[in-house]
Design goal:
301 residues, alpha+beta, five-stranded mixed sheet, five-stranded antiparallel sheet
Length: 301
């Protein structure tokens, strides 16, 4: 096993958030309005536990995340073709989740491909072609944001869907492996204290939604899968309608910056930067869960 120590950014402890909800504008707003009031603080040397060889010990029910194997018809080059991603890969993920969760229905609402620029995290001063990793701990959704999303995507049947067990599930995988650079880390949901979770607003030009910011807590148990391969899906929960407590058994997550002692400062010749796929999907279940995939499969940040 390859346990690590990593730096992660968390929401700063501030009196401000006792009276003001954290927010971030995802568009250029009025000059007198700050783009965000979110203040982050960096925590170094956080233990990150490698679960390689112990994958079966972790489950969605107990820990909020699990590792699930899924073969795919997609080749690496296919992920540059949006039509193949939509027609083949997202269908494969939805089918896999439906079987895995015993879901009545799986609806993928978002997917994202991240391709790290060779210079990242050093800024190039230009806009990146692809989304880059983030080292900020967060949860992508809240129960109310998922209810609003279900209503927006399924206006004709949203009321009926919301009566069922609804989950928002993220699926994340590398597009090639073994992954050595900027892996995704998740926090064991059993170690999450709801008092350290703060709902925040993401405001776009035409709508607003919510996610959850995270305060650092020494009791948090962070995990990752070393050498993750493309057929190893990291499946983790973001919202569960059956869990009414703050966070609802959700799994905090972040990317892990590669430390100098773990990786050369520059990529070896001929070795491209890592690529990952995240998916967000929502699904309607009776006794099963309805997932949303984000990021690489169908829903990150």
């Amino acid at each position: 096993m390859k346990d690590l120590q990593a730096s992660i950014h968390f929401l700063a402890q501030s009196e401000l958030y006792h009276t003001e909800k954290p927010y971030a504008l995802r568009y250029t707003g009025e000059k007198e309005i700050a783009q965000t009031n979110i203040k982050l603080e960096k925590h170094d040397d956080i233990p990150i536990h490698d679960i390689r060889g112990r994958e079966r010990e972790f489950s969605l029910e107990k820990n909020g995340f699990t590792i699930s194997k899924m073969s795919s018809r997609m080749l690496y080059r296919d992920f540059s073709d949006p039509e193949r991603v939509n027609a083949i890969y997202l269908h494969e993920v939805a089918t896999h989740l439906k079987e895995m969760l015993g879901a009545r229905h799986v609806q993928i609402y978002e997917h994202m491909i991240r391709k790290r620029h060779p210079d990242f995290p050093i800024s190039t001063g230009k806009e990146y072609q692809y989304d880059q990793p983030t080292s900020q701990a967060h949860i992508d959704t809240t129960p109310s944001s998922i209810e609003a999303l279900v209503a927006r995507l399924n206006s004709d049947q949203a009321e009926g869907m919301q009566k069922h067990h609804l989950q928002c599930i993220n699926v994340w995988k590398p597009l090639r492996g073994p992954l050595q650079d900027w892996p995704l880390a998740v926090c064991d949901a059993a170690s999450v204290d709801a008092d350290n979770l703060v709902v925040s607003d993401k405001v776009y030009s035409d709508f607003a939604t919510e996610n959850i910011q995270v305060h650092r807590d020494a009791r948090q148990r962070w995990c990752y899968l070393s050498g993750q391969q493309p057929d190893e899906l990291l499946v983790f929960r973001q919202t569960d309608s059956k869990r009414k407590e703050m966070g609802g058994g959700a799994t905090e997550h972040t990317y892990l910056p590669t430390h100098p002692e773990q990786k050369p400062k520059s990529q070896p010749p001929g070795v491209p930067p890592p690529r990952s796929l995240s998916v967000a999907d929502g699904d309607n279940l009776g006794l099963a869960a309805a997932p949303f995939l984000q990021g690489p499969v169908a829903s990150g940040a």
